[in-house]
Amino acid sequence: MLVKIGGSVAQIPDAMSIQELLQTKNLPGDGLIIAVNGDVVRREQWKSQKLNPNDNVEIIRMVFGG
Amino acid sequence: MNDKLEIGDTKLDSRLFVGTGKFADYNLIPKVIKASKTQVVTVALRRVDFDTKGENMLKYLPKDVIIMPNTSGARNATEAVRIARIAREAGCGNWVKVEVITDQKYLLPDNFETIKAIEVLAKEGFVVFPYMSPDLMAAKRMADAGAAAIMPLGAPIGTNRGLKTKELIQILISEIDLPIIVDAGIGRPSEAAEAMEMGAAAVLVNTAIATANNPVLIAEAFGQAVEAGRKAYLAGPGATQQVASASSPLTGFLRDE
User: Fold this and answer.
1) Contact residues for B120 (Cβ-Cβ < 8 A; gap 6+)
2) Which residues in chain B touch residue A63, judged by CB atoms under 8 angstroms apart?
3) Where are chain B's structural domains?
4) Among all residues of chain A, which has the CA nearest to that of B73?
5) CB B14 within 8 A of CB B37
6) pLDDT band, very low/low/confident/very high, at B256 (cuts 50, 70, 90)
7) Of B56, B86, B158, Cβ closest to residue A30
């Protein structure tokens, strides 16, 4: 299925969970914030929440800044 | 001396807020925090770049400092609100520095959009620190909208040019019943002291520390300057006058006059 990740369209397996998505991107979850369609998904739900076609996924982290 | 900066339920001993951007080496950041004695640091949020991935920066920040995310990147109130909500989910508390910027040359904040963002965020329980162009009417609206403090700029972000807006900030200090925290533009400890002497509640410094030859040493100097300026403000400096007034007795004993 097609979803948007960080503003770009990406092809991922159907019903992939957020946790699985992070694993395929080789991203440790440490310090990350995930939003799907504008809503933050709590860490506890990363395993259970499956992505749907056309979901808009943002993977965000804190960075140093003023 | 029992002189704490009170913001909401929080009481701070240090009146220096430190921004964490632009440091050449992240390992400097904990040292800067320690040397400056700051208790509040700002951070930002960014999309993860799959090429560089980045690391969890929280490991560089001592556990006892307040982490204040900013909304940098927001070009309107809606975006600022969205960034603030996401930042809160990161679990770093409910302080947020609202900055809404569309002007890319001077990075001057949009006071109008900022007011709108404060209205929403304050109702949601955020402790809101708006970065703003020093304008009395805008500051009043921000106070009415529920801001916890007002953060006027001294000069454009990153310019190290000092208190170019001094007289306008002075008006905010005298007319607004909220802490005035001078943010942006302060380039030297003397300028931080100057802001504190005139009654600013705190200052936020980033570029001036991060781009100094010795960031840790200048961080310490900024901490001391803020303390010195605050004490001078509390002490109430003596009046100025045009003609000299002797500090030593002029009564001579060498001559009979």
Assistant:
1) B77, B81
2) 43-46, 54, 57
3) 10-235
4) A65
5) yes
6) low
7) B56
Q: What integer pLDDT is reported at residue B49 of this predicted model?
A: 75
Interface predicted TM-score (ipTM) over 0.90: no
Q: Output B189 or B256, whichever has higher pLDDT.
A: B189
Active-site residue, from B31, B34, B63, B97: B97
Do residues B62 and B96 touch, judged by C-beta distance below 8 A? Answer: no
Which residues of chain B lie closer than 8 angstroms to A35, CB-CB? 86
Specify if A22 maps to a domain.
yes
What is the pTM for the complete model shown?
0.89
- Please state, in angstroms and rounded to a whole number, the distance separating the CA atoms of residues B66 and B126: 14
Q: How far apart are CA B143 and CA B164, in angstroms?
A: 23
Do A6 and B69 count as a contact with CB atoms less than 8 A apart?
no
Q: Using 50, 70 and 90 to split pLDDT, how confident is the model at B138?
A: very high
- How far is the C-alpha of A31 from the C-alpha of B118, rounded, in Å? 26
pLDDT (average), residues B227-251: 90
CA distance B238 to chain A (A): 36
Q: Fold for domain B10-235?
A: TIM Barrel (3.20.20)
